Amino acid sequence: MTEDLSPAERYAAARKRAAEQATALADFREMYDFGLDPFQIEACQALETGKGVLVAAPTGSGKTIVGEFAVHLALQQGKKCFYTTPIKALSNQKYADLAKRYGVEKVGLLTGDNSVNADAPVVVMTTEVLRNMLYAGSQTLLGLGYVVMDEVHYLSDRFRGAVWEEVIIHLPESVTLVSLSATVSNAEEFGDWLDTVRGDTEVIVSEHRPVPLFQHVLAGRRMYDLFEEGEGRKKAVNPDLTRMARMEASRSYNPRERRKGKMVREADRERERRQRSRIWTPGRPEVIERLDSEGLLPAITFIFSRAACEAAVQQCLYAGLRLNDDERRARVREIVEERTAAIPDEDLHVLGYFEWLEGLERGIAAHHAGMLPTFKEVVEELFVRGLVKAVFATETLALGINMPARSVVLEKLVKWNGEQHADITPGEYTQLTGRAGRRGIDVEGHAVVLWQRGFSPEHLAGLAGTRTYPLRSSFKPSYNMAVNLVEQFGRHRSRELLETSFAQFQADKSVVGISRQVQRNEEGLEGYKASMTCHLGDFEEYARLRRELKDRETDLAKQGAAQRRAAAAAALEKLKPGDVIHVPSGKFAGLALVLDPGIPAGRSNGHRGFEQHDGPRPLVLTAERQVKRLASIDFPVPVEALDRMRIPKSFNARSPQSRRDLASALRTKAGHIVPDRHRKGRAAAADDREITRLRAELRAHPCHGCDEREDHARWAERYYRLRRDTQQLERRIEGRTNTIARTFDRIVALLTEMDYLRGNEVTQNGKRLARLYGELDLLASECLRDGVWEGLSPAELAACVSALVFEARAADDALAPKLPSGKAKAALGEMVRIWGRLDALEEEFKISQTEGVGQREPDLGFAWAAHQWASGKGLDEVLREADMPAGDFVRWCKQVIDVLGQIAAAAPSVSGAGDGNTVAKNARKAVDALRRGVVAYSSVG
C-alpha cells in the first residue's frame, strides 16, 4: 500500500507516525494486548489535548479504557486522579484493577466504610465521598488534575442523582472531567451542558457493540429467533412468533363454550392440543439445561425478586443440575473457604453458608442486594473465572459490575417499580441485555426472553430495537447543600451556581419551544383581532360582555344542578325500609319498595378507599320482581315515600318466590297511586341581577346592531380561546424558569427562620448542619441542637440514628415496629415530634417532599436490630428478630455507621462543648459496637 504513495505522502505518513509514537497514548496502548476501538482512540486523543470528554457507549464496549487513560495521564504529569463510581462494589472492583496495574502504593480507596492509602496519586471513591470533600475544602484536592465519573448516567437517579451534578458544578476549573455513560439518546444535550459548566468538552457517542447481540424467545422446547434473517436495518419480527401469539390469543377451544351450546369440531380441538403442547413457559432448571446444551452458558437470568432468585437456585439443586466437574468443585471450595475465612464460624450457619456453597460447587448462584456483600463478591469472582455458570440476579447486577456473560435471560418484561408492576423500559432492557457477550471470549452474545402468557413479539421487538434512554436530571437543592454553598460563595453566587445545573439547563431548553409557540400564538391573536374589528364600535368590549354573560349563565346552571343533586340526596337519606317510592328515571324507573336505605354518604365499611360516595344507594324491590341497588343518578329530582308496607321477616332477596310474592303485594298496595309530577322551579337566571345588567349592556352596545355581528363573534371566540391557551403556556414558562433558584430561596428562608443562616453568614447551627449529609440532615441537626440524644448509651444512640437512614422496602405494615425501651424509646418519640414540627414549617415555606425536597418521616423499623447488634447480641438472634436478609442488615448497619461518624464530627460544635462531646464520644463507641462480625468484614484493605 505504501508503494502507491508519493515520496511526499510517505514522508507525511512517517511524520504522523513519529508524532503519534511521541504521545502519551502510544505508551498507554502498549500496556494492552489488544487494539483500541476508534471511539476509545478519539476520546483519549481529546483528553491528551486538554479537553474534557463525555463518552456514551454500550455496556461492555470498553469505555473504562478512557478513564484508565486519564489515570495514566495524571501519573505521567505528576497530578492526582480521582476515579468515582456510584456504588461501593464498583469502587472495590476498580481499586483492585488499578492496584494490579499500577501497584498498591500508587492507588487508594475511599468509600463510606473503607479508607486505604487516601493520599495516593490515584484514588478510587464513591461520588458522595468526592462531594463531601468539595464542600469541606479537603486538602486531598490539592494537585487534582483529572476526575473520572464512571456511570455518570446515574444523575437520573431520583434519590442520589443530585450528587453527580454537585460534583460537576463545584469541581475546580483546572480539573479535567472524564464522564463515562451508558448509551443515552440525549448525549449531545448533556455534552452541551458540560461544555457550559466545565469548558471545552468533546462528546463521543458509540452505538457499536464489540460483540454482536442476538435476540431469542424460548417457548416450550424450542428457541426462536426474535427477528427474521434479512438484509437492511429494518428487521422483521419472526412470523412463527407472531403466529403463535395470535393463536394463543384466539384459542378455538374453550370448555365454557360447550356450556353455551357451541359445538367445537374434534379436529380443531386436536390442533389446539398440539399447539398448546409446543408453547409453554419452561421451568428454570429446564432453561439452564437448554442453554448448556446449546453452548450458551455462562448465563445471567434476571428475575425481579430476591426471593425468586433464591428459589431459582433451590429449584436447580432439587432438579439435580450440575454444571461443574470434580476438579472445578474442588477449586470453588478452595476459593470460597479462603474468601470467607474471616467470617466467624458461628455466623456461617445463620447466613445459609452451606446451602450457598452447595450451589456454587454445582456452578449455580443467586446475586441480589439482600446477600452478604462477601457472598456477592465471591459469586462475582467465581463467575468471571468461569466456575459459576448460571447466576439468578435482580436488576442491581446491571449497574456496572464487571460480570459479562455469554447469554442473558429475562423471565418477564414486567417488574415492580416500588409502586406498581410496570413494563420495563427500552433503556432498562438495553442495560440488562448489555451484559451478554464477553469481549475477547465470545463471538456473539445472546439475549433470551421466556415465553409468557399474553406475550407480544412486537412489544419485545420494540424494546430490543429502541435506543431511547434519555438522561433526565434529578437535581434538587437540600438543606446541607444550601448552608455549604452559602458558606463558600454567599447567597447571590450560590443562586447563580444552582442556575447552572443540568436540571435548570433542561428546563430552560424546554422553555425555548414553548416560547416559540407563544410567539406564534401572539401573531395569531393579532390576526384574529383584526378579523373581529367592527365599524360600529369596540367589538372586543362587546365580545367580553358576551363571554361574561355566558360564564354567569353557566355558573348559575352548575349551581342549580348541584342544588338539585343535594336535594335529591337529602330526600334519599330520609327513606326507611318499607317505604314505597317511584323511581323517577333510569333502567328501573317506576314503582319500588325500599329494602335498605343504603350506606350514608361518606361511609362505606370503614375503608378509606370508599370515602368519596355520591350519596345513599338504596336497595329496592321493583314491581317487576327485581332486587337492585340504585345510585344517585337514578334520582335526578327529590323522591318522597308514596306509602309504607311491611317487609316480612322471612323475605329472602335471593328467593324468586319471595320476590314474586312481595312484588305482587307492592302492586296491590300502591299500583294505583300516581306520583306527583316534579315541577321545575323558576330558573335562577331569570331573577339574577348580574345577568339582567349584562343583557341590558349588550343590547345598548353599538356593535349589537351590526349585520355581521355573529361573524365577528366567531372570530372573537377564537381570539379568546387562543388567548387562554397562550396564558397557560406563559404560566408554564414562568413555572420552569428559575425553578431550582426559587426552591433554593425557599430553603434559605426556612433556614434563616431557624437561625441556620443570617444573610450571607452561616451560624454555629448552620456549621453543624454543613457536616451532616443525608436525607434527614435537618432533623439530625435539630436533634443535636435540642439535646435529644444526650445521656444515651452507644447502643441507644445507634437505635436513634438508624431512624435517620432506614427505609422499609415494603409499604407501611399494620404492626408497629418493636422498639428498645427506656431512654431510646423516649428519644425516638421526640425525634418524630421534631419531624412533625419541621414538616409543618416546610408546609408553611412551601417546601414539598413530592418535589424531592424536604424531610421524610423517620422510619423506626431498624431501631431494635441496631440496638441489639450494638449491644453485642449474636447474628442469629438479631436477624431472626429483625426478619431481614443478612445483606440488608449489613448495608443498613454500614449506613448507620456512616451517619454516626458525621454526628461524631458535628456534635462538638454544639454550644456547650462538654455536652456535645458526650454525644460525639458515644457516637464513636456506637461505631465500634456496630462494626463487628459480618459488618466489620471487608474484602478490601
Structure description:
With 941 residues, this protein is α/β, with parallel strands linked by helices. The protein is built from 35 helices and 24 strands. The strands form 5 sheets. An 8-stranded mixed beta sheet has the order 4-3-5-2-6-7-1-8, sandwiched between helices. It has a 7-stranded mixed beta sheet with strand order 10-9-17-14-11-13-12, sandwiched between helices. A 5-stranded antiparallel beta sheet has the order 21-20-19-18-22, covered by helices on one side. The longest helix is centred in the middle third of the chain and has 35 residues, at 539-573. The chain starts with 6 loop residues before the first helix and ends in a 5-residue tail after the last helix.
Strand content: 5-15%
Number of strands: 24
| Count of runs of 4 or more consecutive helical residues | 35
Low-confidence stretches: 252-264, 601-613, 909-916
Which helices and strands occur, and which strands form pairs?
Blueprint: H1 7-21, H2 24-29, H3 38-48, E1 52-56, H4 64-77, E2 80-85, H5 88-102, E3 107-111, E4 114-116, E5 122-126, H6 127-136, E6 144-149, H7 162-170, E7 176-181, H8 187-198, E8 201-205, E9 213-219, E10 222-225, H9 239-249, H10 255-259, H11 266-278, H12 284-293, E11 299-302, H13 306-318, H14 326-339, H15 345-350, H16 353-361, E12 364-367, H17 373-384, E13 390-393, E14 407-410, E15 414-416, E16 421-423, H18 426-433, E17 445-450, H19 457-465, H20 479-499, H21 502-531, H22 539-573, E18 579-583, E19 590-596, E20 619-622, E21 627-629, E22 643-644, H23 656-670, H24 689-700, H25 709-736, H26 739-753, E23 757-758, E24 761-762, H27 764-769, H28 777-785, H29 794-805, H30 823-844, H31 863-870, H32 875-882, H33 886-906, H34 913-930, H35 933-936
Helix pairs in contact: 3-4, 6-7, 18-19, 20-26, 21-25, 22-24, 29-30, 29-31, 29-33, 29-34, 31-32, 33-34
